[in-house]
Amino acid sequence: MANEKILAKKQEIIDEIKDRVQNSASVILFDYRGITDNEAKELRVKLRENNSDYKVYKNTLMARALSDLNIDIDASLVGPSAMAFGKDQVAAVKVLSDFAKTNQALVLKVGIIDGEVSDKSKLDALATIPSREGLLTMLAGGMMGIARDLSICLDLYAKQKEE
């Protein structure tokens, strides 16, 4: 029988995983085998710049925490895995996807975006979406274009009325 202290520590880790999954907009499970220490530090810095982070947990503890949350990704919990947690839906996916392009050792497995399980193809699609700031810039540019066109129309209408 396992020691009570060990069981309490494991339950504490399970609760931590559940809390982080529930409070994150995106959770990405990835294989980190073959990544050097310097590459891991570089990845962590890039993730933190985008309000994200990653942590390595035991697969059994991740499986137990996710099953408590009714999330089934047990098929992806094979081999060493790390979990990246993001505050928005695409930031962590974009960072990990970009990092995987230059470091073949990092392999995205599966993600949980807004509580829904997303396979590798959906993660790849999310990685192509522009950042939040980029989308807001596009929206502002579109709105400025409409305002500009409206001002031109009103100016032409005013000149037509003057004649």
Shape: elongated
Unreliable spans: none
Rg, nearest Å? 23 Å
Strand element count: 5
Percent strand: 15-25%
Structural class: alpha+beta
CATH class of the largest domain: Alpha Beta
Terminal residue distance: 96 Å
Helix content: 55-70%
Average pLDDT rating: 87
Supply the number of helical segments. Answer: 6
Strand order of the largest sheet: 2-3-1-4-5
CATH superfamily of the largest domain: Ribosomal protein L10, N-terminal RNA-binding domain
Order of helices and strands: HEHEHEHEEHH
Number of domains: 2
- CATH fold name of the largest domain: Alpha-Beta Plaits
Name of the CATH architecture of the largest domain: 2-Layer Sandwich
Main beta sheet strand tally, sense and closure = 5 strands, antiparallel
Describe the model:
The chain is an alpha+beta fold. Helices cover 57% and strands 16% of the residues. It starts with a helix and ends with a helix. The model has no long low-confidence stretch (mean pLDDT 87). The protein has 2 domains: 4-129, 2-Layer Sandwich (Alpha-Beta Plaits), CATH 3.30.70; 130-163. A hairpin with a 2-residue loop joins strand 4 (107-113) and strand 5. The protein has 6 helices and 5 strands. The longest helix is centred in the C-terminal third of the chain and has 31 residues, at 132-162. The protein is elongated and about 95 Å long. Helix 1 crosses helix 3 (59-68). It has a 5-stranded antiparallel β-sheet with strand order 2-3-1-4-5.
